[in-house]
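Researcher: Good morning. I'm working through a list of sequences from a screen, and I'd like to move beyond sequence-only analysis. For each chain I'm collecting a predicted structure so we can compare shapes side by side. This is the next one on the list. No need for commentary yet; just the structure.
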Amino acid sequence: MTTIELANTRQVISRGTLVPAQPARLGQTVLAQPARVGFVATAAAIPPIAVLHMEADAAVDPVSWTISDYVVTLPHGMALFGMTAAALAVGAAALAHGLSPLPGTRIVRGLLMVWAVAAVVAAVFPTNLRGTPEDFSSTVHLMAGAVLFAVLPIAGAMVTRRYRRATGWGACTITLAVTSAVSGLLSTALILNRLPGVIGRPELMLPPGILQRASGGMEIIELAVIALTLLRSTPRVSQHR
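Model: Good morning. Structure tokens for this chain:
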């Protein structure tokens, strides 16, 4: 990179907003490498959780059993879920790091890091076996899970708003907006479905296993869409000084 290009890059970072990148210059953007890491890490989270479900037999019920129940019941469950959680945490942390040069991203970066930490905590502190009393580990796991499902849709909505202000309603903006909205609706339904049981009341009638898998799958998709959105964007110098 020449001295002029380096100077231009520094000026771009200091005044950065998100706009679609030209394919030829994508590798030169400050967001490209972290966004690629985020996308690859998110994709790497899928095989372990898929293997976990492939190990299930007739004794487990995907309708009423949550993923956490699978983890503590099936062979290699904790190891497989740990790999998925670690990959998702790396992906979210990479995206947070990629956004760090851009002004006005502190909150969304904080949310992504909180989400990454919650993923690790949920793996380190497993839930209790079905039919056994809840303990400290299961309580921590439940709280970490609530953070996981609550935080990412908010982060996605914030990235959507920033991108829309810079580029308008393009394909990336619409995709991220829809993904974040669906993820938010599923997460809200999941939390509301679980909340009565937490306070000692009868739980709602929605099937927890299916609802959690739908919400969890959508969050993985949302994280990947955030990564792709950032991969197609680049900081630029504002034309309005």
